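hey m, so remember when u said the tokens were messed up on ur end? i reran from scratch. heres the input so u can diff it against urs
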Amino acid sequence: MKNKRYLTIALTAALMAGTLPGSAALAAEEGGFTEVSLPLTEEKETLTVWVKNDVTLMNACGGDLNNTPFFQELEERTNVHIEWIVPASGTEQEQFNLLMSSGKLPDIMYTYPNQVYYPDGLDAAVEDGYFLDLTDLLPQYAPNYLAAIEKSDEDTKQGVKTDAGRSVLMYSVMQEEQPTFYGYVVRQDWLDELGLSVPVTYDDWEEMLTQFKETYNAAAPLSINSRFFWNLGIGMGAYAPNDFYQEDGVVHNALLDDTEAVREFLTLMNRWYQNGLIDPDFASSTAFWGDSVLVTNNNTGAFLTMYTFPSAIFLPSMEEGASFTAVKTPVKEEGDTLEYGTPVPSTTSAYAVTTDCENPELAVSWIDYLFSEEGAMLANYGVEGETYTLDADGTPVFTETITANPDGLTYDEAMRTYLMAPSFPVSYYDWKRELQFISEDDFNMCYIWDDVNHEKYYSSYAAMTVEENAEYSNLFADIDTYISENALSFITGAKSLDEFDSFIETVKGMGLPRCVELKQAALDRYNAR
């Protein structure tokens, strides 16, 4: 581990020097947000920033983020040059770990909860001497970031601090709450031709999928993948056992607390699989948002996808008249409520300022600029007159630079090149900008999928201690693998459901009850923040 170091911030000296946030003086406040005086520094300064690999963006910019108009404009405004460090896609956690042991860290490091992170937790990252505790820096140098947090929901306000009360990360924050952006869709044109209503119950779904198979010869009436199929069990109380939920502050796992519901769900999935209603290759599928080959070749009529995909990805390659309708996951009886759902988090990726950063005030100010009114507009919409104009109501509207790029960039590539990519790396993100590229009908899918009770959600901000995390990781890695392998075997029939009770006892013996206890301890501390 790195030796612990303690940073004393000479605010007075920095202000007198006029080379740091002294020159980024706070000028005026409106609605809690603060106008920033630019440039942030009179002398050109360089910060090193380590970020994840956004493949689409890296391809569009030739492998150097400084080639993009967005980051060029950001440098022009702030007078801060960024030396980007981007690992190969898929190696982020490995490279993150290597940096931690290298003895020399970049100034700023990207993290993403549960994907790229310090395994012992944020408090440990500070105590071990890797990340700075930003608690005392934020009020002076990140007033806009703090204003964005203050406007967020209570879970976010509570979650951005550690159990020890530290502010270690600066998160990307949603300007407004976003409804669930993914869920199941079905072929509405097929329903119309068959005279079927939108399915509600499991019986409705089984009838629909059977008709899709028999009438349209669909090879995969229901297209799912090995991880997301569990959300089909929510309607019968069979929540994903690879995850945990809480009820009134008490942590549960479906295999322990809803055992019979899980058995019932796996029995149903087995029947659907044996009857040819599920993609026979679902166990190896990696298509999270819909298998484009199955969809466009009319081999599936029901699948999980994002709201932007049907019109933008699938329908352009399909015959005229094809259409999709968003549906909720099935329930046992019409009128039943879906009692569990995962809300869209108000925060996503984050930046940590490391202890090797010689100018943490500037680093924090640079991040904070993207939360100011001006900086957030740049991040979300770019430069007025070039990438957007304002309509009569003052709403930004993208120009053809984004919507019909003259260099042949798709709108997604153009957005990532001329603007800040979604939650990449960190900004005050306006997700509604995406609505300029889809129809109102497509967006309304989100409200159908979001009609779920979110109160049982286990907060992603609940964090374990170093010791708890080590024990949990050691136990749950094997448990997760065992659950996944056996669930697939039960569905495909490779293992008889007569062995389900033995499966449950094995999972208990592997330490699943202890994992619940560790999750409970983390949640208790989170609720006490």
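this time it looks ok to me. The CA atoms of residues 255 and 504 lie 7 Å apart. if urs says something different then somethings off w ur setup not the seq
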